[in-house]
Amino acid sequence: MSQATLHTPTVRTTCPYCAVQCTFDLHVERGLPVKVTPTKDCPVAHGTVCKKGLAALNDLRHPERLTTPLLRKGGELTPVGWDEALAYVRDALGNLPPERIGVFGSGSLTNEKTYLLGKFARVALRTPHIDYNGRYCMASASAALNRTVGYDRGLGFPADDLIRSDLLLLVGANVAETLPPLMQYLKGIKDRGGIIYAIDPRATTTSKVAGRHLAPRPGTDGILALGLLHLMKQWGKIRPTAPAHGMTQVLAHADDYTPARVAHDCGLTEADVFALGRAYAEARTPLILTGRGPEQHTQGTDTVQAWLNLAFLTGHFGKVGGGYAPLTGQGNGQGGREHGQKNDQLPGARSLRDPHHRAEIAALWEVSESDLPQPGYSAQELLNACGDPAEGGLDALIVIGSNPVVSAAGAGQVTQNLRSLKHLIVIDFLPSETAGLATLVLPGSMWCEEDGTTTNLEGRVQRRRRAVTTPGAAREDWRILCDLAAALGRPHGFTYTDFRALQDEFFRATRGGKADYSGLSAERLDRATAQWPVKNASGPDTPHVYAPPFLTPDGLATLHVPQLRAPSLAPRALHLTTGRLGNQYQSGTQTRRNPALKAEQTVQIHPDTAREHGLNAGDLVTLRTAHGQATAPVTLTPGLRRDTVFIAFHWPQSANLLTDPEALDPHSRMPGFKTTPVTLHPAHLTLPLPTRPTLSPVS
């Protein structure tokens, strides 16, 4: 047969990166995908894929790809067979008290792996301590929505509704770099005559497209929302979406947030506050979308609450084209927070604290309800407890698909904690900085080497399809979890005949939960995607969810008075804020290795601030906080507030050496990534190149 007549199969799947979850076709030749083609019928991206998605195939056969288990011997990670690796797991974990073991998951896992990881932790390990890196993403918005209307589905409407907005407030959401395919909707809003405000301490690519930019001081977004509510009350624009608890108290609290106070606290002018207020008051369908900017704070839940209250009390919450919604970040950040890898959660967004919910899942798993642990540590608390010999400390940690050495707050302390563990087991497909500290590394599967489902930022469930098999001795992640359960002598409930058996169990496990996927199947998703809840196989999906009656005991929303503090206004004080760059993703385990995604770690500083500190573009500057220090070259950024310093968190030995691992939001348990007092110091030394963990050669 000639080369010209060879058949080239295609496999439709989803992108491994952001929560848009673009669909594309992989063209496979000789067992490897060679090309990505965007699909025009993708319900969100409509035929677009960003640069990261187009470059994703570069990682598939990267020379550093993990293809065999690695066991630490004599201080070095050494290739071993699976039998020896699993024997280590048996000996290491088999005799530890369950409460001394932790599990750290990921918002990149498929729904099925999220479900299985939660089941594995609570049934095979019997530990209460499981959480995931999504705690650093959507947790504050999720907490605010859940305590207000009883559920959280990110965008509670199809993305196509975005263009029906005549005023869009993007609060701390740089979608041009973090969710690029959504930019088509911003264009659609402007084409229809709508107004877009980017509310961000930095002038970003998004703010340039939006055309209107407000730059409040980091940590004051919620105060700005309270100021808008104050004006809406003064101007007679209070028309609640529905009866709700707490409205009187919330409106009375807003009386204190005059334009003068808000302008002072936010570092804006009164004219700025009035202009934004007038735009909101005059809009028919104003929509507020929050990103990580207002959420990654120790008062992130209350900040989101302030914006949610504004939308609800002005009658826009749940309105087509209007209201409030958060923008999910990670690829399966939505599904990842619904099915059991959160410390307080069971499948279908059930509560681990609810006796009825516990009984339902215990019956499915064929265990006693009393054997299911109560909620354990949240993500940062889990990492803080690692290696602590005292009561409440952890001796062992299993990490899958995450790199907390880079992504967690207080990365220096986290690194030392992980070094202090007796056993650190990492499941991944590339050698992350966390894997470099492991006592055992297990080679897992990449996105196009596994089947499953993901749930995008609008609650849309889609199929992820396997295009190729794992290389060498690498195994699919779900099989590894089942292997670990067997090694621990607890195979019951983990002996699936194939992936389909696991997937069908997952769908069944969500039946009756808030996030009900029980009407789904691979066959139904082959025909069309679906937005949850989907309660039966022949019934419809639910494109719009944020409408009364709400999923609360009495069907009413409960508004809460935001407890907000303005950050320090000390003269010349600087605040560090962290975030992302367009060509990088999360901790950079994949994107920093990808030759098509070039980016450099720099510190962004306003030219006037740099001048005051004797710094020029390209100079090395050392950032110091109460938690650590990091050094990088200076980039002069005129669109940045003078009192703000920005650094991206994709690199090791940088941003999260500077953030606080101890102070957490009381509701979401979110660390304060966005506002850390910082000082600048010119560094008269050569910047060392970022180092990668030392791993033994992989066969």
UniProtKB/TrEMBL annotation:
Residues 8-64 form the 4Fe-4S Mo/W bis-MGD-type domain. CDD domains: MopB_CT_Fdh-Nap-like (cd00508). Residues 326-353 are annotated as: Disordered. GO terms for molecular function: 4 iron, 4 sulfur cluster binding; metal ion binding; molybdopterin cofactor binding; NADH dehydrogenase activity. Keywords: 4Fe-4S, Iron, Iron-sulfur, Metal-binding. One of its GO terms (cellular component) is membrane. InterPro entries: Asp_de-COase-like_dom_sf, MoPterin_dinucl-bd_dom, Mopterin_OxRdtase, Mopterin_OxRdtase_4Fe-4S_dom, Prok_molybdopt-oxidoreductase. Residues 326-335 have a biased composition (Gly residues). GO terms for biological process: respiratory electron transport chain. SMART domains: Molybdop_Fe4S4. PROSITE patterns: 4FE4S_MOW_BIS_MGD. Gene3D superfamilies: 2.40.40.20, 3.40.50.740, ADC-like domains, Dimethylsulfoxide Reductase, domain 2. It comes from the Bacteria. This is Assimilatory nitrate reductase catalytic subunit. It comes from Deinococcus soli.
